[in-house]
Amino acid sequence: MDVPKDQLSTLLDHGLYSSAQMLGCFAVSSTSINSENSPHLKAESLVLFGDSLSREKEYRRAIQIYKQALQYHKILPKQNSTTTPITRSAFSLSNRSSSPNSCNTSAINENEVKFKIATCHGSLGENRAALAEMEGIPSKSRNLEMNLMMAKLYRNSRHTRAAIGCFKECLRNCPYIIEAIIALAELGVSAKDIMSLFPQTPNRSGRPPFDHFDCSRWLPRYVEAQCCIASNDYKGGLELFSELLQRFPNNIHILLEMAKVKAVIGKNDEAIQDFETVRSLDPYVITYMDEYAMLLRLKSDTSKLNKLVNDLLSIDPTKPEVLVALAVLWDKKDERGALSYAEKSIRIDERHVAGYIMKGNIFLSMNRPESAVVAFRGAQELRPDLRTYQGLVRSYLALSKIKEALYSAREAMKAMPQSAKALKLVGDVHASNTSGREKAKKFYESALRLEPGFLGAALALAELHVIEGRNGDAVSLLQRYLKDWADDSLHVKLAQVFAATNMLQDALSHYHAALRINPQNEAARKGLERLEKLMKGVDPDAPEEDEDNEVDDGDGDQEEAELL
């Protein structure tokens, strides 16, 4: 041969892909390789050339080259199509040790080449084409990597049963594939069923190959934690993660999982603390940093948000988490620009839930609730959590679709019966109607009984007191929280109540307190302007009632009573 295959393979093994690509051009065009007499050599050279293209992210060219290799491979008698797929390192080793007598047998494996084609299609976002290639590989010939890829492709294509089967097959071969555990939990498989997949067959020494499960118990506990989170038992999941964190202190993965859950359930301060701990341990982590960005935005901590985004951009600006963080940063400055970042994050990873949630929030701020519904629905299909339900309720209320909002809120309450936030969500829908205020009050009170420190429910209940003229009750309720909460929204609400009762000096004091905590608080700024109008005797924003939106839902009332 003019170009030895082992030299081409060596370049690939050492990561010299540009050199391998240029050398590959010589290898596949060499006149010393007769495609009729030596199709196996032609096929091998084409596969190596395809590898160099794939590694340089020239996926279209790689697919074409791999398919040419398969055409030359078909000229040979079928001989290795059902053997275990080989890696390139094993492929190059077999080439180096091959004897002259083996020169007419092809070292390429048809299934391995199909897997490479599927991988290229996957990198291009062509899931259907990738799945078609993978389904052409017999199930008995699939290795662990192939099964994991098939599972992801089936899941992306919403073939849930097939995805579960492939994920389970992965765990039967290796119980430590954490992403398979998380996926099965999210797909509704129970912890018991997942743990039953772990190998239990004794080896020659008489001990099970994974007998350290019984003595350490950490992996089963991890499975239980993920299943709790997937079933919206956030409290149970956090307790299990905390237990694991004691055994594995400063475990970045567990800290990130806990931070994300706390962000979902509204424990924002604790979530921020966990994210900051992670960044102090490893400042180059990108996972879930878009969730951290959203929390910083809620806290109006602009300086930290700016630093976070700059840090992320210096690490890898192409990651979906970085693009969502950019959307968070630009949301108030340029809504259209922020929206483009959120949409780009979804194009990169169509399963990136935070991208859909951010997109929905931006649409709401742009007064496009119809589009917001679509975005929140997209997030809910991937992974329903409290934020997706909250987004849907807000969107439907903005559209004056009270029945749809009530349905979404009740779905949240069914999914999370022990969640004070879910109870408040139902109360919010009822509070949007004059006839539903008494029901709303019951839900807010139930939420506070379930979680006495839930400031959101207290603020909502205080608002109801104000609307119904019980300003004294609103003040006494809110003042109980002043001892434990340095929260700008709490001061704003107190200021609004005092303004409504003509206690203007107290209102002024609380507006200033809110702005000291959060200078970016728009409600406090506007409140000061309204206060000036009140001093002039002008009612700044008289409430408007929408009698057409009253809901008569007897069956739903009975259902709510049972849940309460």
Summarize the structure.
The protein is 70% helix and 0% strand. The chain has helices at residues 5-13, 17-29, 39-55, 59-75, 88-96, 110-123, 127-135, 144-156, 160-173, 178-186, 191-195, 212-216, 218-230, 234-247, 252-264, 268-281, 289-298, 302-315, 320-330, 335-348, 353-365, 369-382, 386-398, 402-415, 420-431, 437-450, 455-467, 471-482, 488-500, 504-517, 522-535, 554-563. The protein is elongated.
Q: Tally of extended strands? A: 0
How would you state the average pLDDT, rounded?
86
What's the quaternary structure here?
single chain
Largest sheet: none
- Any idea what the radius of gyration is? 30 Å
Strand content: under 5%
Given helix and strand content, the structural type is mainly alpha
Describe this structure in words.
- Helix 1 (5-13) packs parallel to helix 3 (39-55) and helix 22 runs antiparallel to helix 23 (386-398).
- The radius of gyration is 30 Å and the shape is elongated.
- The protein has 32 helices and no strands.
- It is mainly alpha-helical and 564 residues long.
Give the topology:
Blueprint: H1 5-13, H2 17-29, H3 39-55, H4 59-75, H5 88-96, H6 110-123, H7 127-135, H8 144-156, H9 160-173, H10 178-186, H11 191-195, H12 212-216, H13 218-230, H14 234-247, H15 252-264, H16 268-281, H17 289-298, H18 302-315, H19 320-330, H20 335-348, H21 353-365, H22 369-382, H23 386-398, H24 402-415, H25 420-431, H26 437-450, H27 455-467, H28 471-482, H29 488-500, H30 504-517, H31 522-535, H32 554-563
